[in-house]
Amino acid sequence: MTETFQISPQQAALYEEQFVPALFTHWVEPTLMAAQVGPGQRVLDVACGTGIVARHAAERVGPGGSVVGVDLNPAMLQVAAQVSPDLDWRQGDAAALPLPDDDVDVTVCQSALMFFPDVVAALREMGRVTRAGGRVAVQVFDLLDDQPAYGPWAAMVARHAGPEAVRMLGTYWVHGDRDRLAAQFARAGITVTSVHDHEQPATFTSVEGMVRTEVGSTPLADRLSPAQLDRIIADSADVYRPFRTPGETALTIPLAGYVMVGEPT
Ligand SMILES: C[S@@+](CC[C@H](N)C(=O)[O-])C[C@H]1O[C@@H](n2cnc3c(N)ncnc32)[C@H](O)[C@@H]1O
Fold first, then answer.
1. For domain 1-141+175-201+255-265, which architecture applies?
2. Cα–Cα distance for residue pair 32/137, rounded to 1 Å
């Protein structure tokens, strides 16, 4: 997943075929359960990507409810519309949602907050379009230091490539501080009502596949020499040994994260 959001149709298709089943699908039920999505509701999925959360929300709300998915990226929305032509897909920025005030019962946002340049503005928008008494549920990942598998792996990469390498390994972990995110909810006019912790699997074709995916999708790709990359791949096998199943090539590691739920005030 790039962080530039110049996502091509091919990258969006790859996201749906590989990254959704490998990782994002596992966060859908925790997010929808925390948000208490149920029959008859109107639900907004912010930064819906190829629509995995919206599709499951549509099953939960049933024929009496409705679901709208918003994403900045037309290529992601194109895939979403191919998979589920019946849902309402709209192009838009999380910081200027294309919906009227108090339009939905529940707003969800999964694995996307870290990409928004102004988090409070996006949260304020989620609160604006959610009716009073409704819910805003945001899923994010824990801090790198609190990641049981990815944390030690990143520390190993830092030993090979320097401490600044860890910063380049992505923005996925920036909202891991619950108190800080709760304060951002408050500044956006949303009162936190619950926080739900989870650990979910992320699957890669192999240890080498994990390293090449992680490094290749960050600026680190341009900084590492082939020899450094080889050493990182070799050491990754050691770091991930506790998580491997003997005889299996595929690598499944736990990812820690949480869903914060709030009510617009
Ligand atoms: C990691 S994907 C998550 C997609 C989806 N929520 C899921 O769980 O599969 C992050 C998504 O955020 C979208 N995005 C990034 N910045 C955005 C913004 N400012 N407004 C709306 N969507 C944004 C990207 O286009 C991408 O589809």
1. 3-Layer(aba) Sandwich (3.40)
2. 8
